[in-house]
UniProtKB/TrEMBL annotation:
Pfam families: NMT1_3. This is TAXI family TRAP transporter solute-binding subunit. NCBIfam families: TRAP_TAXI. It comes from Acidiphilium iwatense. The lineage of its organism: Bacteria, Pseudomonadati, Pseudomonadota, Alphaproteobacteria, Acetobacterales. It comes from the Bacteria.
Length: 337
């Protein structure tokens, strides 16, 4: 449900003016040498809305990818994680970014946004950065603890983003039932929060989310944390989520770390992308990982076992060798030719 007459984006999103604009859903191909794999002449990357981490990381990766592959990359500004997977399924985008928890929902098909049908036209390429649930409310408002969100009006970020598909289930797992949970642009929702038309905002993304950092510079917000019991309850219900911490230095005037829930962000591609190209795209990113998050102050590169554990999402076979060269996991059980 929307508040006011402000425009809402549809679930998948819109085309962006960033870079070259792709002319359609079907990509062209070029092959100078018939012995080489059929390579696309151009690629479209699904990113995310302004104020989110994907909107900044995507073009940075795209520029590195163009240099590494000499293939033009255009951009599709979408709602985020779930929308990007749908765009890949439709071949409206061949590259994108999502979170592991959303990718797990797509792969299993156990989510309303997938139509309860497994979506397996995409593959993982490489890990990007840590993402967390960041809940914030006005200092002079009624929300002080997670339980205060019961019966409250909250904003959960863009339609098609990780927050829109994960947060309702996360709050339900912790026994929280908001009166109203709306989707919308990040800046739009922080404005509604200042106008007291929302009681809190709950955004899921890179830590700290650029939109939250910008809003916090104007002051007047407090971050809402989780108890260990709430973290454990959510982790048991939603695959791909685990306890996390928002560091004390994440936002202006934040005085202490805040316990929350997190998931890793990953780059994805169409499953039918040539192995050679998937490898080059992965190499181009992993060779410059730190530089690609330069415009995201506070962002933490996602390392660890990134796609093991309870995540069944397959890794593109072309990315596997590049991952291993850079010291990252590429479990054989998750690689299918």
């Amino acid at each position: 449900m929307a508040l006011g007459a402000r425009a809402r984006r549809d679930f998948i999103g819109r085309r962006s003016a960033l870079g070259l604009i792709a002319g359609g859903a079907t990509i062209g191909v070029a092959r100078a040498n018939p012995a080489l794999p059929l390579m696309p002449a151009a690629l479209t990357m699904a990113t995310g809305e302004p104020g989110g981490g994907f909107a900044l990381f995507g073009p940075a990766w795209g520029m590195a990818a163009q240099k590494g592959t000499r293939i033009a990359v255009s951009y599709h500004a979408s709602g985020g994680s779930a929308a990007n997977i749908l765009l890949a399924e439709q071949n409206a985008a061949q590259l994108g970014m999502t979170t592991l928890a959303v990718a797990a929902q797509a792969w299993s098909g156990h989510a309303a946004w997938t139509g309860n049908v497994p979506l397996r036209g995409f593959r993982a390429l490489f890990p990007i950065f840590e993402t967390t649930l960041q809940i914030f409310a006005p200092l002079d408002g009624k929300v002080r603890h997670l339980g205060d969100l019961t019966g409250a009006r909250i904003g959960i970020g863009p339609a098609g983003g990780a927050g829109s598909v994960l947060i309702p289930a996360m709050l339900a797992a912790a026994g929280i039932s908001p009166r109203l949970a709306i989707t919308g642009l990040y800046a739009e929702q922080t404005d509604l929060l200042r106008e007291k038309r929302l009681d809190a905002c709950a955004f899921f993304g890179v830590t700290p989310l650029p939109a939250i950092r910008a809003a916090a510079k104007r002051g007047g917000f407090t971050m809402i944390g989780f108890t260990r019991a709430e973290q454990a309850a959510i982790g048991r219900i939603v695959p791909g989520l685990a306890a996390a911490v928002i560091p004390a230095t994440s936002l202006p005037d934040q005085s202490a770390p805040v316990a929350t829930i997190g998931s890793g962000a990953i780059a994805i591609c169409r499953a039918d992308l040539p192995d050679m190209l998937a490898g080059r795209l992965t190499d181009a990113a992993l060779a410059h990982r730190a530089a690609l998050i330069r415009d995201l102050p506070g962002a933490t590169l996602f390392h660890g076992s990134w796609i093991e554990g309870d995540i069944p999402v397959e890794i593109h076979p072309g990315a596997a060798a590049a991952l291993r060269r850079h010291g990252l996991a590429a479990p054989a059980r998750l690689i299918q030719s």
